[in-house]
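Subject: for your reference before the review

Hello V.,

The reviewers asked for a structural picture of the protein, and I figured it would be easier to keep everything in one thread rather than splitting it across files. Below is the amino acid sequence we used in the manuscript, unchanged from the supplementary table.
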Amino acid sequence: MHREYYQQEQPRVMEMQASYNSSSVVDVDSLVQSGGAVGTGVSPSPTPLPPHDIEMRNLDGVQYKIVHESNAYSTPGKVLTMVEKAAEAGKKKGNMPLVPMFISAMLSGCFLGFGSCCIFRIGGVLPSSDEGFVRLVSGLFGLPIGLTMIALCGTQLFTSNCALLSVAVYKRVLTVGRALLCQLIVFIGNLCGSLLFVFFITYSEILTDNAAGEAAIHLAEKKLSSSFGVAVLRGILCNWFVCMAIWQSMVAKPEDVTGKAVGIYPSIMGFVALGFEHSIANMFIIPQAMVLGLDATVGEFLAKNLVPAAIGNMLSGVFFVGLAFAVIDTLSDVKKRQ
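And here is what came back from the structure prediction:
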């Protein structure tokens, strides 16, 4: 939040306060006529002004002292960098109360389960002879839908949080302990939401005794056939581009739905088409396949897929996106000051 305190020099001292952001303009005429804050309903206050940047300005023949107060992530006339946006987003997510955080994480699990189910119902029923076309359709009508819902609703997702929380920690607006606690709660919440969606899909019989259900089993079998190391590497590649999708979506304004979707879709389509491993999506895909008849145990699911995929997701989100861009931003600022 950036604030401007208007202080009249003569004949009497008067302090005024106005809200500021990058898209707003202070109405000076209203300020002078009202004798108080513009659009805030704040009356003149005798409280001493904080010692921040001071600017002198003549308003209707009266000399005013304008005192700028701002924090590190909002300065007058400055557009926030992507790293600053990520730090603020990470701070907000990390400091959310635990119960709302858990509920939010459950919703994200459901949203990704919804997207994964679309993969089976749409891509899974296409002729398998044209694998490229099947992958394209699965990418278009699958996980991008779920991730777009998450980005627009602002719910908690373990994989994208890896990047956002790491930037917040790097910028010292969030502690390491709080970030780790957040990720633990979110991971468990994502799992609970995914399993809840498995329950809904199972008893709605959407995937029962049809080609879509067979596609779910076939996909889960492929995911469990990889070695631990391969699953880690596929997890790294997956979340690299999932976090890039979220990063790109932040270029758009908060209310720009189309801009956010455009930022998300290409990267998510690509990772689905290439067959990378997303730990949270797999929390729905593999348990759903197990309910449908996949010959696998919970232990195999954890050891062969969920754990290695989550490790890979965490590594790429933290190091290849969050800290990578934070370090670039820091080094660029140092270079500018030299």
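For the response letter, the relevant points are probably these. The chain has twelve helices and four strands. Strands lie at 2-8, 15-20, 53-59, 62-69.

Happy to draft the paragraph if you're swamped.

O.
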